[in-house]
Amino acid sequence: MSIFNQSVKVVEGKTVLLVPKVSIGSDLIPKMPAFYNIQAKLNRDLSIIIYKAMTRRFSEYVKMADSLASVGARGVRVAVEVPEVDKVFMNDLNPIAIEYAKSSAEINGVYNKCSFSIQDACHFLIEHSTPRERFEIVDIDPFGSPAPYLDCAIRAVRDEGMVSITATDTAVLCGLYPNVAARKYFGHSLRTKYCHEIGIRLLLGALAHSAMRLNIGIHPIFSHSTRHYIRIFVTISSGASYADESMGSLGYILHCFKCGNRRASLVINDNCEECGKKFKIAGPLWLKEIHDHKFLSYSLNMNIDLSKRCKKMIEMAMDEVEMPPTYYIPDKIADDLQVVTPSLNKIMDSIKARGFKATRTVINPKGIKTDAPSPLIVEVIRELSDRYDKKI
Ligand SMILES: [Zn+2]
Hints:
Blueprint: E1 7-12, E2 15-20, H1 41-55, E3 63-66, H2 73-81, E4 87-91, H3 95-107, E5 114-117, H4 121-127, E6 135-140, H5 150-155, E7 157-167, H6 170-173, H7 178-185, H8 195-212, E8 216-225, E9 230-238, H9 240-247, E10 250-255, E11 262-265, E12 280-286, H10 293-300, H11 308-319, H12 330-337, H13 344-353, E13 358-361, E14 364-370, H14 374-391
Parallel strand pairs: 3-4, 3-6, 4-5, 6-7
Antiparallel strand pairs: 1-2, 7-9, 8-9, 10-11, 10-12, 13-14
Zinc ion binds at residues 256, 258-259, 261, 272, 274-275, 277.
């Protein structure tokens, strides 16, 4: 019996995808016969926007590699929804997954602009690592850690091209296994309330390490996360000065578990200036911007349909540019204080009224970023909740 008897069609964006029936409606998605996660649609929606904005930088033939393509959900969507991409290469070790990708490409009439291969992802990428063969855009979206693929991805992308990476080993990146993070990402993770931002910065730091060894620098364009994955988009630039710039973007985040104070630092041996307790350390990791305001502004102004959610996420990312590299979760602070959480807008207004900056963050819908000291944030939340208590 053909595998396609056990398949269903789903629509993502403007694309029809043929996927295994068993991957729909189940919390635990099986890897066989081929993996498809409908929950990752948002991840792919955002990719389409960023890739589309990226293609304006290329005047010649544009090639995109979906190097761990599975059923080709991202690759086929790019072939359909980003017409500026001339050729999409979909690769996966699972031959059944590639059969699904081929069928979806046929259904959408884009078979001729797609190329399919069944290889180990690194093997596939290395085959495309000579100057003429390199891709304008390389995507890495494995089961678990992308760490084994970082070097190959950098080698297979052309100068001024883009690498996008998904990491689903969030437990490692978000502080549950700091030693594993150090081994895979060259930096310790830390179990803080803002651990997803640490995860993003560790992944960027690891990619920078891989690039720097090849005299290449990285430039983050957009980063986001959910509870289950971390996602980054970066462009690369060839040259020792760019690599030096990346090296200068690495450092540490120091966190005080007694009072919640935290800051970026280039040194690791320090005590909390608020309470005197010794800081715990995350890193080395990427300390500079994780979004590019100008690029994102351009992507919002392209003449394409944007879902409200994607638009909101890109706007939030733009707002948090130039803010500190960590965020606060007022809900958690209010829990510790045993008070009702005031609205995020009220908290931000109150922080701004005291002369500090405050924004939302795309990394966590319940988070806020601010340059105010941590005791002030606690004070604001306590004061606002007092007023709320008096009202009722
Ligand atoms: Zn402290």
